[in-house]
Amino acid sequence: MPHFLDDDSDDDNVSDPFDVSDAALAAALMEAEIEDQAELERRMELRRAAASSFSAGARVRRGPDWKWGDQDGGAGNAGTITEVDSDGWVRVKWDKGSSNKYRTEKAGGTDLIEATVGEYVVSGAGGICASTINGTYSYTRQHNSAPLYTKEGGRAILYYGGGQYGWRMSDTDNTGGWYYSKKGSSGSVPCGQWTKDGYSGSDVLPCPTVARVGDDSAGGRPQLTGVSTLCVGARVHVKRSVSNPTYGWGGVTHDKVGIVKRVDPDGDLKVDFPDHSGWTGKSSDMEVVTASTTVSTATQL
Q1: Staple 190 to which of 49, 154, 182, 242, CB 3.0 to 4.6 Å?
Q2: Any transmembrane segments, and where (predicted)?
């Protein structure tokens, strides 16, 4: 279990402090004393991105104005838009929940955002965390007046706990304990190498690295060498043992490496290759590219 300390307060904010408008969002950030312009811009960008992604068939998850409990089956779960109304409400069928209607910006709130956009990549975590921590993380809710990020397809979280340990990482949705931290951090999620400060065990080494998805600086484009699962953000190619992919080659070869952009419940993947965006494949046909994988570097993203 993660180490528990009582050096600071980790009480969850049960209700989202953000109102439905950008003006209210900015006011709430100032009231919460979050002096982070980058975070304000990130939240507004989420709203702008959401406005362009609401169409039948789009994959979504709870957004910054979510107030509907666990109708989606819990934070981090995704669903599919089945109806779009002219008044700005859309119907979503959740993968792990029921079907219901939610607000878009036109209806006065951003209940939903695109489910396929990962924001941070954690890689290199070892020991007992190798299979639970590594992956792509996206915003799911607020905690301690800061964003909380949940691993796509998992329960691990990145969260701000305050105090001397700042940002922390847990393998379960539990803000009372952690395995990794970035001591003294505040503001946005700190990228780079994290440590196990606050956790006394040695069964989680090596410690992971955190990078923004698509960020080629300070950690480079996420290599995900510690990730063994096909998650959003993973670098993949067609397995050498596959002679004919389920949905055909479509210009892709064994040597071409792409980035997973979507993972559907039925195992289908959407992958962006250098010369073929939106390629569809079966997860059983693909494998994650690791440091030991032999591919042609000329065809990598």
Answers
A1: 182
A2: none
Alpha-carbon gap, residue 187 to 39, rounded angstroms: 8
| Interval 63-106: pLDDT, tens | 778 889 888 887 667 788 888 888 889 999 887 778 999 998 88
Q: Where are the beta strands (DSSP E) in the chain?
A: 59-62, 79-84, 89-94, 99-103, 112-114, 120-123, 135-143, 146-151, 157-160, 167-170, 180-182, 192-193, 209-212, 235-238, 258-263, 268-273, 276-282, 286-288
Query: Which of 160, 161, 143 has the alpha carbon at shortest distance from 8?
Result: 161
3-state class (DSSP) for residue 47? helix
Q: How far is residue 274's CA from residue 257's CA, in Å, rounded to a whole number? A: 8
Q: How many CB atoms lie within 10 A of CB 7?
A: 11
Q: Could you tell me which residues come within 8 angstroms of residue 148 by beta carbon, excluding any fewer than 6 positions away? A: 139, 140, 141, 142, 157, 158, 159, 160, 175
d(CA 188, CA 229): 26
50 vs 60: CA distance, rounded Å:
9
Mean pLDDT of 3-22: 40
The residue behind tokens 């929940």 is 97
Q: How far is CA 297 from the centre of its chain?
A: 27
Pick from 135, 128, 133: which is nearest to 204 by CA? 128
Q: In whole angstroms, what separates CA 225 from the centre of its chain?
A: 17
Query: Rounded CA gap, 80 and 93, in Å?
Result: 5
CA distance 240 to 22: 49
3-state secondary structure of 42: helix
